Amino acid sequence: MGNSRRLEPINDLVERALNGDRRSLSRLISRVENGGPDSWGALSTIYPRTGRARIIGVTGAPGTGKSTLVGEIAKFSRKNQPDQKVGIVAVDPTSPFSGGAVLGDRIRMRDLSGDEGVFIRSMATRGSLGGLARATTDVVKVLDACGYDLILIETVGAGQSEIDIARTADTVIVVEAPGLGDEVQAIKAGILEIADVLCVNKADRDGVQSTINALHAMLDLGTAAKGTLHHGVLMAASAPSATSAERWRPPIVKTIAAEGKGIDELMAAVEQHQAYLTAHPDGQQRARLRAAIELETVLREALLNRLLASVGAGRVDRAIEQIAARTIDPYTAAEQLLRWP
Amino acid sequence: MGNSRRLEPINDLVERALNGDRRSLSRLISRVENGGPDSWGALSTIYPRTGRARIIGVTGAPGTGKSTLVGEIAKFSRKNQPDQKVGIVAVDPTSPFSGGAVLGDRIRMRDLSGDEGVFIRSMATRGSLGGLARATTDVVKVLDACGYDLILIETVGAGQSEIDIARTADTVIVVEAPGLGDEVQAIKAGILEIADVLCVNKADRDGVQSTINALHAMLDLGTAAKGTLHHGVLMAASAPSATSAERWRPPIVKTIAAEGKGIDELMAAVEQHQAYLTAHPDGQQRARLRAAIELETVLREALLNRLLASVGAGRVDRAIEQIAARTIDPYTAAEQLLRWP
After folding, report:
1. CB pairs below 8 Å between A and B: how many?
2. B262: confidence class by pLDDT, cuts 50, 70, 90
3. Do the Cβ atoms of A63 and A184 come closer than 8 Å?
């Protein structure tokens, strides 16, 4: 209050961002990305305004064209519902939205970035071990509170934390493409289980039907395996869901995102899934799972930062030196730090 | 002591595993994978015996053939140094070693699994947010202590935690292959920075030279970017390394793993890198970084488990229900749990 720090008070940023100021929104997102108590306060403030956006996760192997698909979903939504704002959060290091793009990708997304109703944010992929997941769900909350009606989270469909990020969405689209190798990538990477909608993109390529057949075969097998996915430490304590007789079977939709084809059917499948979640107990179970993942990511980050603050960087540094010199093992070093003070 | 629990005392397992009993080694690894105080004790016990193995991380996009390469490195080492045992730890969900294999992959690795001097372990990829990284480094330590001279860690080269896992190795081989898409995958995924040796596999394919050229171009640019990789919360406090005048430039080696070609040159490059680490300050910095990552993963897991134990599953469940019902935000819920008791 009244002191002239270089950082603006976060509450001012919150106020202006909620009023629609894009620059303040950008700055608020950066602050939230960095985390810390200041950021927690802001997130608690905006929390009552969240929960209105539809959140779609889009995930798949590199080369499936999911960035193009994300761009097309955004355009489709803007065209059909011009009063609805779209946020894009790119966690995928191969995405044109997050800086890994080749020139063609950048050209394709240029008309999007000129649209005031679209806000694009790429997440740094350098955060370590869970920090990225926490930051991503927080940024989604900020966009949600600031009136973005549709939020698209793009993650690369490999890597545990990236899969966990996708799972915080209401609906997860897993993107596949024919001819990426010997095998359907989604199957090999084990991300089929988190799919609510399967999208076979680049459907003008050879081998599209065999990709679709392989996905159907896996879905036929997969119902038995459903629910075996690890739900984090916290969710393990929670009660399992009642098995509903009519489970959702992910529909398979063909698209050619580079030509804008099939996006309408894809979004219709997303709508159907969201109607299903509203009507079935699975929807509540999903909300609980998401809550557990969110709580766990917040706790993990908070616990480590709290320990660091109480122990001090000097002690941590000495522990690191000792472990590196092999004069102590990491477990004993951790125990010593945990006993401090 | 003396009570007949179903689980064997972990110290018995440790003793038998250290004496070369494979079944006990398997069981010990499962126990260590699950974590917990019991596992910490075992790891502290074996720690003085670790630090002898050479640890090689092999990472790259799906489709680069890195599993085949890992198998060939193991065969090469067994053939040239029959007294040296080889451990393979597969964290990659697309690896034949970790269960995602097609038939051809399985046939290729069959002669390996008949070799008593090779121990293969696939890690469950279902662990959440850091648990997998902790479990993997722990399993590597067990193999190291049990006399495995060469340990190969295979991870898919995308996803932050998977990249962190690869970085715990002495030498990281990043595998690339021509013709996987428009772009060199290693560049797009941002994993070039962790490469100590670059391997262009499937070098009988078209486009191998342009892949090599692209990698060289990136290396020329990349020296400036070196060191920008996030090193975790703990390492951030630590002093940066002195910039050495002669930095290691990752050599680029061509292989055709499916035909066993180029493995000798690849391993020669690995040897050179290990000689470099021994002779240069970078080696010490690397050891510190690895120590920091190890300490951080152990602390993260321990802190959450300790909190869970003190707070109780009931309170956590209620917090999850409240977050799911949107009657509380995750930050406030976390703060309440952290204040307990």
Report:
1. 271
2. very high
3. no
Task: Report the chain A residue with the minimal C-alpha distance to residue B127.
Answer: A230
B33 contacts in chain A (CB < 8 Å): none
Cβ-defined contact of B158 to A161 (cutoff 8 Å): no
Residue B241, sorted as left (phi over 0), alpha (psi -120 to 50) or beta, turns out to be: beta
User: Contact, B300 vs A304, CB < 8 A?
Assistant: yes
**Six token digits for residue B33:** 């994978």
Helix, strand counts (H, E) of chain A:
14, 7
Q: Check if B329 contacts A (Cβ < 8 Å).
A: yes
ipTM over 0.85: no
Dihedral of alpha carbons A227, A228, A234, A238, sign: positive
DSSP states of A126-178: ---TTHHHHHHHHHHHHHHHTTEEEEEEEEES-SHHHHHHHTTSSEEEEEE-T
Strands B197-200 and B252-254: parallel
**DSSP, res A189:** T
- How many alpha carbons fall within 13 Å on the CB side of residue A83? 0
Of A44, A124, A230, the CB nearest to B329: A44
Taking 3-state DSSP, the helix, strand and coil percentages for chain A, each rounded to the nearest 5, stand at 55, 10, 30
A147 interfacial to chain B (CB closer than 8 Å): no
Chain B CB contacts of A126 under 8 Å are: 160, 228-230
CA distance B3 to A104: 67
Q: Residue A119: which residues within 8 A CB-CB, separation 6 or more?
A: A22, A25, A85, A86, A87, A88, A143, A148
Using one digit for the tens of pLDDT, what is the confidence trace for A19-55?
Answer: 999 999 999 998 998 877 788 889 989 988 998 999 9
What is the full DSSP assignment across B274-293? Answer: HHHHHHSHHHHHHHHHHHHH
- By C-alpha distance, which of B63, B104, B92, B78 is closest to B161? B92
Task: Please give the pLDDT value at position A25.
Answer: 95
Instruction: Give tens-digit pLDDT for B281-328.
Output: 888 888 888 888 888 888 888 888 889 888 988 899 999 999 988 899
Please check whether residue B65 is in contact with residue B182, taking contact to mean a CB–CB distance below 8 angstroms: no
Q: Provide the token pair at B246.
A: 């002669």
- Residue range(s) of every CATH 3.40.50.300 domain in chain B: 50-280
Q: Which residues of A touch B133 (CB under 8 A)?
A: 129
Nearest CB partner across the interface for B303, out of A40, A185, A304: A304
Whole-model pTM: value is: 0.73
Distances in whole angstroms, Cα of residue A89 to Cα of each of A81, A98, A129, B67:
20, 9, 19, 32
Q: Are B165 and B136 in contact (CB under 8 A)?
A: yes
The dihedral sign for the CA sequence A66, A69, A73, A79? positive
Give per-residue burial for B85-94: e unless 16+ CB within 10 Å, then b: bbbbbbbbbb
Task: Answer yes or no: CATH 3.40.50.300 is held by domain A51-281.
Answer: yes
Which tokens in the block code for residue B171?
């030498």
Mean pLDDT of A86-94: 83
- Assigned CATH topology for domain B50-280: Rossmann fold (3.40.50)
Higher per-residue pLDDT: B147 or A96: B147
C-alpha span between A160 and A1 (Å, rounded): 42
CB contact under 8 A, B331 and A44: yes
Residues 168-187 of A with CB under 8 A from B: 180-183, 185, 187
Say whether pLDDT at A221 is over 50: yes
- Look at B126 and A229 and tell me if their CB atoms are within 8 Å: yes
CA distances from B163 to A129, A159, B117, B133, B218 (A): 10, 9, 28, 10, 19
Structure token pair of residue A338? 């945990």
Beta carbons within 8 Å of A221's beta carbon, 6+ residues apart: none
